[in-house]
């Protein structure tokens, strides 16, 4: 008996919800950083989940406004993201990509909310604030990559070349582990940069590229914290150049990886440029937000490369079955594929 079974391609509603959820998680992270940088994190006092003892507080000053907006956006977009993640997981739970990204997003939305509450209750300790932003980035990445996967499934169902089909041309272990190493390095750099900012040490080197006119200002005190942050940036630039050169020679049949390598290098250089702009603009709010925005694009681009470097899963090997005219294509799993799930 045939074990073929049809899988409904992603609907327009699911894809649209994924886009809204992804943009929402980006906004949540940006507003969260704005909240901290403007000193508004305690705009609701030490109350949580209430704000100054009320569900809707008196919006009397900008700190209350920003903190309350942050909490409202987190709650609203967290619900939207959770609906998308659970919906996609229910539809495509047989695929490892859907399971990993959905649970990654759900887990870190919950953890991020918990850390946000701890930050308020313990008066914003910098390590918790840095973790809060770092875990918020992971929640965003889970949501964004699941959205990418859903769009790839849609392209696959229409018989077009997609990121899923490209993964059938496997990359070498060197390429895969190189991207994983850079991803881990970048995440550590993000945490360190957040910690430096929340410690108030980001303004210790008010010039660029030198720090107080020195190439090596030392590793002590706030200056040392900021100097290490700059060294992380130099290391990331070197790694991004290596990755682009490596992908151009090792992934000739993978235009997704080659284009991704170019965009990753561009995002790293842009991140460095916005960091330099931040240092030379007296660390005002606008340049800070631009720096964080480019950081999110950088990390998203790198995470996409990580997805495309992974071995092809069941979704990549799914077959397209022709359907009657006027009806949507369905993604079909043949006997040999269904047996692997």
Derived structural class: mainly alpha
Shape: flat
Total domains: 2
Low-confidence stretches: 319-328, 334-341
What's the tally of helices? 10
Radius of gyration computed on alpha carbons? 22 Å
Q: Give a count of the beta strands, DSSP E runs of length 2 or more.
A: 3
- Report the average pLDDT across residues: 82
Strand arrangement in the largest pleated sheet: 1-3-2
Provide the β-strand percentage band: under 5%
Helix content: 55-70%
Describe this structure in words.
The chain is mainly alpha-helical. The two termini are 18 Å apart. The chain is 67% helix and 3% strand. Helix 2 packs antiparallel against helix 3. The chain has a 3-stranded antiparallel sheet with strand order 1-3-2. The chain is flat. The chain has helices at 12-37, 62-92, 96-121, 126-157, 163-166, 173-198, 221-250, 255-280, 285-309, 335-338, and strands spanning 5-7, 319-321, 330-333. The protein folds into 2 domains: 11-160, no CATH class; 161-319. A hairpin with an 8-residue loop joins strand 2 (319-321) and strand 3 (330-333). The chain is built from 10 helices and 3 strands, in the order E-H-H-H-H-H-H-H-H-H-E-E-H. Residues 319-328 and 334-341 have low confidence and may be disordered.
Topology:
Blueprint: E1 5-7, H1 12-37, H2 62-92, H3 96-121, H4 126-157, H5 163-166, H6 173-198, H7 221-250, H8 255-280, H9 285-309, E2 319-321, E3 330-333, H10 335-338
Antiparallel strand pairs: 1-3, 2-3
Helix pairs in contact: 1-2, 1-4, 1-9, 2-3, 3-4, 4-6, 4-9, 6-7, 6-9, 7-8, 8-9
């Amino acid at each position: 008996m045939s074990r073929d079974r049809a899988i409904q391609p992603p609907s327009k509603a699911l894809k649209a919800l994924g886009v809204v959820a992804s943009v929402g998680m980006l906004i949540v992270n940006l507003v969260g950083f704005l909240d901290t940088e403007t000193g508004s994190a305690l705009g609701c006092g030490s109350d949580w989940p209430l704000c100054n003892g009320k569900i809707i507080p008196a919006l009397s000053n900008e700190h209350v406004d920003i903190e309350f907006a942050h909490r409202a956006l987190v709650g609203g977009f967290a619900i939207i993201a959770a609906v998308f993640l659970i919906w996609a997981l229910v539809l495509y739970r047989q695929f490892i990509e859907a399971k990993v990204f959905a649970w990654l997003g759900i887990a870190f939305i919950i953890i991020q909310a918990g850390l946000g509450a701890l930050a308020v209750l313990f008066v914003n300790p910098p390590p918790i604030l840095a973790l809060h932003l770092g875990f918020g980035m992971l929640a965003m990445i889970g949501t964004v990559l699941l959205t990418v996967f859903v769009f790839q499934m849609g392209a696959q169902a229409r018989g077009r070349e997609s990121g899923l089909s490209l993964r059938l041309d496997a990359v070498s272990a060197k390429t895969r582990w190189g991207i994983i190493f850079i991803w881990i390095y970048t995440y550590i750099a993000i945490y360190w940069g957040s910690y430096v900012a929340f410690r108030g040490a980001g303004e210790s080197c008010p010039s660029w590229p030198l720090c107080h006119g020195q190439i090596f200002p030392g590793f002590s005190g706030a200056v040392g914290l900021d100097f290490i942050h700059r060294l992380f940036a130099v290391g990331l630039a070197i790694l991004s150049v290596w990755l682009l050169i490596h992908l151009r020679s090792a992934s000739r049949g993978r235009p997704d990886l080659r284009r991704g390598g170019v965009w990753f290098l561009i995002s790293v250089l842009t991140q460095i440029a916005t960091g330099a702009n931040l240092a030379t603009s007296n660390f005002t709010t606008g340049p800070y937000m631009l720096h964080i925005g480019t950081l999110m694009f950088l990390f998203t681009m790198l995470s996409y490369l990580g997805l495309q470097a992974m071995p092809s899963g069941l979704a990549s090997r799914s077959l397209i079955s022709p359907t009657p005219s006027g009806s949507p294509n369905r993604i079909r799993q043949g006997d040999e594929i269904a047996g692997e799930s």
